[in-house]
């Protein structure tokens, strides 16, 4: 592999946050509309809980933490090499209009891959009471980027445990809420 640069394995454990967001009905509805959703539950401001959050709405409040963590751990000239590779989201409960959410991010795992270096970060979001809202394990492959300073302390020996106990797939969505 011809390399464009290197990432350092010592980034494991680097973290940012908490980044705080106030969730409102307009944001929930705008996200659903941007996806072309037609289910009226995504726009119902008269229901007791307000508009339903789209299952992937978590990316909205996680994104600033993702950018901050990337800026802290990946040199600017290597950032364009990043390709979204894995995404495992656990919804502990749906975000609601009126919530104040706090998101933290941490690099959990790095590993060399044939095409570059895999970096897996975990985003944990809680509400104003500290109750879990969502947990995401998000993986990016930095193509043509080597992994330097690999140390023998299991930083790269096995992947970070999936966010949900017993989960075995690399990407997907699960929910702990009752149907």
Task: Give your account of this protein's structure.
With 179 residues, this protein is mainly beta. It has one domain: Thiol Ester Dehydrase, Chain A (Roll). Helix content is 15%, strand content 38%. The chain contains two helices and eight strands. The protein has helices at residues 25-34, 58-73, and strands at residues 5-8, 15-22, 82-91, 100-113, 116-126, 132-143, 145-148, 171-175. The strands form two sheets. It has a six-stranded mixed sheet, covered by helices on one side. Strands 1-7 form a two-stranded parallel sheet. It starts with a strand and ends with a strand. Residues 155-171 have low confidence and may be disordered.
Write a brief caption for the model.
With 179 residues, the chain is mainly β. It has one domain: Hotdog Thioesterase (Thiol Ester Dehydrase, Chain A).
CATH fold group: Thiol Ester Dehydrase, Chain A
Radius of gyration: 18 Å
Element order: H for helix, E for strand: EEHHEEEEEE
Largest sheet: 6 strands, mixed
Runs in which pLDDT lies below 50 for 5 or more consecutive residues are 155-171
Fourth-tier CATH superfamily name: Hotdog Thioesterase
Shape: elongated
State which percent range the strand residues make up. Answer: 35-45%
CATH architecture: Roll
Count of helix runs? 2
Q: How many β strands by DSSP?
A: 8
- Level-1 CATH class name: Alpha Beta
Kindly report how far apart the N and C termini lie. 47 Å
User: In which range does the helix fraction lie?
Assistant: 10-25%
Give the total of domains. Answer: 1
Oligomer: single chain
- Main sheet: strand order: 2-4-5-6-3-8
Structural class: mainly beta
């Amino acid at each position: 592999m011809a390399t464009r640069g290197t990432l350092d394995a010592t980034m494991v454990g680097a973290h940012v946050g908490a980044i705080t967001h106030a969730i409102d009905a307009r944001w929930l509805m705008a996200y659903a509309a941007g996806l072309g959703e037609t289910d009226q539950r995504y726009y119902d401001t008269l229901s007791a809980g307000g508009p339903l959050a789209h299952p992937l709405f978590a990316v909205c409040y996680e994104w600033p933490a993702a950018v901050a963590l990337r800026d802290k751990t990946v040199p600017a000239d290597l950032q364009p090499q990043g390709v979204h590779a894995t995404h495992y989201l656990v919804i502990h409960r749906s975000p609601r209009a009126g919530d104040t959410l706090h998101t933290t991010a941490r690099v959990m795992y790095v590993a060399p891959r044939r095409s570059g270096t895999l970096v897996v970060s975990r985003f944990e979001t809680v509400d104003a009471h500290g109750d879990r809202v969502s947990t995401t394990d998000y993986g990016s492959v930095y193509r043509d980027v080597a992994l330097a300073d690999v140390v023998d302390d299991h930083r790269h020996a096995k992947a970070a445990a999936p966010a949900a106990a017993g989960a075995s797939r690399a990407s997907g969505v699960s929910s702990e809420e009752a149907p």
